[in-house]
Structures are given as C-alpha cells and as structure tokens.
From TrEMBL:
Classification via Pfam families: Aminotran_1_2
NCBIfam families cross-referenced by the UniProt entry: PRK03321.1 (NF002878)
Annotated Aminotransferase class I/classII large domain residues: 29-346
Organism, as annotated: Brevibacterium metallidurans
Cofactor(s) recorded in Swiss-Prot or TrEMBL: pyridoxal 5'-phosphate
Protein name (record): Histidinol-phosphate aminotransferase
Residues recorded with modification N6-(pyridoxal phosphate)lysine: 220
Pathways involved: Amino-acid biosynthesis; L-histidine biosynthesis; L-histidine from 5-phospho-alpha-D-ribose 1-diphosphate: step 7/9
UniProt xrefs under InterPro entries: Aminotransferase_I/II_large, ArAT, HisP_aminotrans, HistidinolP_aminotransfase, PyrdxlP-dep_Trfase, PyrdxlP-dep_Trfase_major, PyrdxlP-dep_Trfase_small
Keyword annotations from UniProtKB, A to Z: Amino-acid biosynthesis, Aminotransferase, Histidine biosynthesis, Pyridoxal phosphate, Transferase
Gene: hisC_1
C-alpha cells in the first residue's frame, strides 16, 4: 500500500448533507445542505440557456468581467478580488498560503466542517475554541489562544451551523487585539441573510485591517451552488498570494456568465434573501414557542441544540421524508418550502412531547 500523510488521520472527511428518504404518500424535502430552495433568477437561467460556448476552450482564468463588476458593486479595486470555485476552494487556498507543520490555526467550534479539514491537511496545529452556550463566538478566548505560531484565524458570521452573526464592534475590538502578522479570514457565506442590528460589515473593516480577508459566495443567496463560484476580498498582497494557490481555469465560462447576470440583478437577489430571512425568523420563533432553545438565526438555517437526542430527532425526520443535518450535538435545519418547515414543526412538537413530556 502507498504511504499517505499522517495528517490525514487527524481530521474527518467532509460529509455532505444526506438526501431525504422516499416515503410513500409524502413529498421529500432536503433540508440538510443549506441550499437556496428557490431557483436562480429567471434572467440567470436565460443566460445559462443562451451561453453555450465551445468547451474545448478554457474560460477566462482571471474572471475579468465578473471581478470588474464585483469591484464596482463592492467599492473595491479589482486587485482586491479573487474568484474561486466556491468559497471552499478559497478556504483551501487561504490555508495553503498561511499554514504548514510549524503553524497554528485558530477557529470557533462547532463551525464549518472544512476548517479542521483544510488546516489539518496543511499540517497546522488546530486550536478549536468552543462557542459560548448561546452559539456565539468566544472572541476573547480566541484572542487569548493566539501564540507566536498562529498564522491563521477563521471567523464565521453568521456561524454555520449555530446561526448567530458577529457584531461589528466586537470584531473591531478583536482585530485590534490580533497581531497584524496573523491573517484573519472572515467567512461571510451567509451575510446576505443577516438582519440583526449591528452585524459585522466585513467590507467596512478592510481599509483598516490589511490582515483581513473576506470569504463570500454565489452559492447561497444567489442560488448557484451547483456552479461553484466564490470570491475573496482582501489586501492586494493577500490576493496575489491566493492567485498562486487557486486552481487555474477553475471557474467555468458558464459559471462566470451566470454569476455576472445574478450580480447585475443584485436588488432582486437581496429581496429574495430577505424573504428567506423572514421565513427563517417565523420558523425559529415557532420552534421557540414549542419550548426549544433556538439560538439567534441569521443564516438560511436554524440550529436545534439537541445534544444526545440528535440521532433520534434525525431519525424522526427521516421517517417523515425530511433530511436534516445531524452534527451529533445538535441538528441544523435549512430553510426550505413552507410545506417542509410545517412538517418539521409537527415532527418537533411530537418529538418534544415524547421526550420532554
């Protein structure tokens, strides 16, 4: 057998959300992957249908048109942007340009499952800082965890899977306490859904903090998860480093065209994100009314901190043709159609009656 790196034994693989079980008489719903349950905008679908190029040719490696219009939309220079095959590739590249066997990476936990995967694969020592009881980042503990070996800190706002968003003031204080030599990655994959007052504005922090880089994506609010388009915003030196680490020609011509059209309909995208946020708020409040301790929900999902009952709750959902994401200490439920959420509420009410009396 070939010899593989020992680091592979130190972290689990990424496990995508399970598909729902087919149950006779019930429509199946997948609420396990934080996908946008709405289809892309009609204009995006028209672009995809019309945009039939020659697959023998490579796409624009620099994603020039998309980066140019993104820069105008965000109020930054094109040199401040990199486009990648989803925010996941951006996370891998960030780890590659900062981390190795001599460094440490600090991130909140539980959070996005790729954080231990990418940092572990680089050989970095992983410092997982537990979230507070309400599902929020413990920024004081994260700052205290920084050592001379720390090269990368990852923040996630809204946090996946627990839901709370970081506040601008607390992040500013945190960045002031972090050495400038440490790269801080702010994962904002769900920023379009955040509605709480004072939520962190990553773009507003960049000018004062050249060690900050933002991770964003067209997968969630834009509904283009299957096309794999993410982007990073940061200091030109960081972006130049990332351009050396990302896969050449990774984002296809079709994906760039679809993302560009969606970007040009920004107001429509944000309006639909607001609708999903409203449904999320209603769903979270309905669960709270049943007696569940639901943390602040600012993404397109809701977290149930079920502890050892997580497996049983997932099984109850599976029996009703609903797929949710079980993390072992809780269950994440993506926002889907009203019919799906109504069924989850029925399951949750029955489950609570059976297990809590």
């Amino acid at each position: 057998m070939p010899r593989l790196r020992a680091a592979l034994e130190t972290f689990p693989p990424y496990i995508p959300g399970k598909p729902p079980r087919e149950v006779p008489g019930l429509e199946s719903f997948k609420l396990s992957s934080n996908e946008n349950h709405l289809p892309p905008l009609p204009s995006v679908l028209e672009t995809m249908a019309e945009h039939v190029g020659n697959p023998a040719h490579y796409p624009d490696d620099a994603a020039t048109a998309l980066r140019t219009e993104l820069a105008a939309r965000l109020g930054v220079g094109i040199e401040n942007l990199v486009v990648t095959t989803g925010a996941s590739e951006l996370l891998v590249a960030l780890t590659q340009i900062t981390s190795d066997g001599t460094t440490e990476a600090v991130y909140p936990w539980p959070s996005f499952e790729m954080y231990p995967q990418t940092t572990g694969l680089a050989g970095a020592t992983r410092i997982e800082v537990p979230l507070r009881a309400d599902g929020t980042h413990d920024l004081a503990a994260m700052a205290a965890a920084v050592t001379e070996a720390t090269s990368l800190i990852i923040l996630c706002s809204p946090n996946n899977p627990t839901g709370p968003a970081l506040r601008d003031a607390e992040v500013r204080d945190f960045l002031a306490a972090v050495p400038e030599r440490v790269l801080v990655a702010l994962d904002e994959a769900y920023w379009e859904f955040a509605t709480a007052g004072g939520t962190v504005d990553g773009l507003g922090l960049l000018a004062d903090h050249p060690n900050l880089v933002l991770l964003r994506t067209f997968s969630k609010a834009h509904g283009l998860a299957g096309l794999r388009v993410g982007y990073g915003v940061g200091h030109p030196r960081v972006i130049a480093g990332l351009l050396k680490a990302v896969i050449p020609f990774g984002v296809t011509d079709l994906s760039q065209a679809a993302a560009l059209t969606s970007l040009r309909h920004w107001d429509e995208v944000m309006a639909r994100a607001a609708v999903i946020s409203g449904v999320r708020d209603d769903f979270a409040q309905a669960l709270r009314s049943q007696g569940w301790d639901v943390p602040e929900a600012q993404g397109n999902f809701v977290w149930l901190p079920l502890g050892e009952l997580s497996d049983a709750f997932e099984d109850a959902c599976v029996e009703q043709a609903i797929a949710v994401r079980n993390f072992g200490d809780g269950v994440r439920i993506s926002i889907g159609p009203r019919a799906a959420l109504d069924r989850v509420l029925e399951i949750a009410a029955d489950f609570r009656a059976a297990h809590f009396g």
